[in-house]
Every structure is written in structure tokens, then in C-alpha cells.
Amino acid sequence: MGAILFDVDETLLTEKPLMMLFLPQVYEEISRRLQIRKEEARAKFLEEILSRRNTYEWHDWNFFFRLFNLDLRYEELLTAYPHKIHVFPDVKPTLEWLKSEGYKLGVVTSGPTYQKLKLRIAKLDNYFDVIVTREDVNTIKPDPKIFIYALEKLKVEPKEAIMIGDSLQQDVYGAKNVGMIAVWINRNNEKGYNFADYEIRTLHELRKILGGLK
What we know:
Blueprint: E1 3-6, E2 13-14, H1 16-34, H2 38-51, H3 61-67, H4 74-80, E3 86-87, H5 91-100, E4 104-108, H6 114-121, E5 130-132, H7 134-137, H8 144-154, E6 161-165, H9 168-177, E7 181-185, E8 198-200, H10 206-213
Parallel strand pairs: 1-4, 1-6, 4-5, 6-7, 7-8
Antiparallel strand pairs: 2-3
């Protein structure tokens, strides 16, 4: 293997603590503006998100802020509350080990450019040789274009690369569709199906997988 590529959210880190902070503010502002109860505002906002699941827009908080004319920018929230972005404890030790072993490392995310800011705030950006967001190719996973773009940047063939992510549809299917080895990181022990080449609970398990592929 020459390169290891990672998804961002719920693979390397979680933004859930930040969401728990700003979503109540979002519901309150929508409630005030539309003159509806807070519960109705919450339902309206979440309905818009769910109706666009796995679309280009679904991956961008700013799209939904604009949709409801909210005076919020996700970049500003990230900068104001950096401590609300939590890196999983297995991430940095694994990235350091992969670097020491000589692997090229990359990120492929369906999120917008602010994913790079998120990685910088989390002090993860310097581990990666390439970080590809949806804006680089105007598409999202599982479109082959986003994976191929990252592989070309890393100068590796699909068969020489592994993709690791938490989404079976985006990360696993997308990677396998271009000929990469796909690893599903299932941190919450969810029920899936036998589609990924490997299923892991923690990134520490990568050592065994890579050892077997040598």
C-alpha cells in the first residue's frame, strides 16, 4: 500500500459537541423570526436537512443557515469554539505511526472548504499530503471523481490506496467503485452489511490490516 485516505467527520473527529451548542440557538432564532414554537422551529430545520440527505447541499451548515436567513457562519463557530471539535483518541497516534512507516496520507471529504479549517483547528492538517473537499471537484462522495482527484494528487494508483470512513454509502461504496481497498470504521458498532473489505472499531486495528497486506 502506498497511500491511506480518510474521511473527516465521525472518522477522525466529531463536531457533535459544537452542534449541541449552536443548534438550540438556531431553533430559537427560527422560532422568533417565524413566530412559531421552538419545537416547530426544530422540526422545520431538521426536516430541511433530512430532505437533502446525501445531496451536495447536505454537507454544508452554511447552506441551511442561509436557507433560514440566519446570521451565522460555520467558520466563525469553529473559530469561536475550537474546543468543541473533538479528535478521537486513536487518531493522532495512528497518523504518526503511518507517517513513520512512510505512507502518503490524504483526506477526502464531501464537506466544503471549511473542513480544512476544522482540521487545522484540530491540529491534524499537517499530517496530510493532500486534503480534498467538494469544492476541488464540484462533487461529493461516492462520485469517483473526488477519489481519483485525490489519488492523482498523491501520485498513486487506486489499487495502491486504502480509504477509511464511517459511511458505507459514501466512503466504502465510493472507494470500492474506483478500485481502492475500503475500510469501514464502525465506531458505534452499528449494523451494516458485508460490503467493506475490512470493518474496524478503532484506527489502531489498521496495523494488523496493513501488516497482512504487505
